[in-house]
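Re: the 258-residue chain
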Amino acid sequence: MNKYIGISGFMTSDEVRSAIALFPECGRQLMVGVLASQKTVLGDGNSKPKRYPKPENFAEIFVDDKLIVESGRCLNLIHYAADDSEELGFALRTVMIHGGPRCHGVQVNVAWPSLRELMWFRRFFPHERIVLQIGRRAIEEMDLPLNLIVSQLCDDLVRRIEPYANTITDVLLDPSGGTGLENDFDDRVPRAIMRRFPQLGVGVAGGACAEHLPAPEIMRDVSIDAESQLRCNGPGGGMLMMSKVGTYLKAVAEMVRT
């Protein structure tokens, strides 16, 4: 899987174009993340309206500039979050349809989602990216002892990922879930997943910004996603700040090029 440098929470195509203009050439794609939730898909309100656009606006966020589309410079994903797997396949299919022809796949922010639901969705979208987020709740649901050593965590995570490996395309280790908490997974965790599942892309997220990035040794091998630390502290979830977006993209690009 092509590695990416991600930003989640875009609301307009103008924000996307500004990010593309700030994105240095580094051999990676810019992951354009649009957020969706169980509530927003059903047409209900959201406590962070400056991060979650209406589903009918998804398609227009992904830019249609011919050169950008044909170059594959952007990886356009809709990040769908829900508390459980109820009608997950239908919800993912719905957001993909709203995403339009420039949407390349989904990120599933559900703790250990129903494999049957994911396989049902895959029937309709056999070639799109499916990123499985492994966040704090997913780890908590594994019910592991607090003093668990890293090697045991790696083994248990690999076992939990195994059933999904032929359906998903990527795994994202994200203890933050858009809250800005730092990624506290040991570097041995993503490496263990990469060794066991070389066909899967592996990414990390959690508190990422220009001032806080994983070590270069792991960054060269994984994708990265950022959200909360690139926004202002305003109401409704805060708007993306292009000054922070630019320094973040530059810092990651320099790191992965070296």
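The beta strands are 4-8, 29-37, 74-81, 105-109, 129-135, 170-174, 201-205, 223-226.
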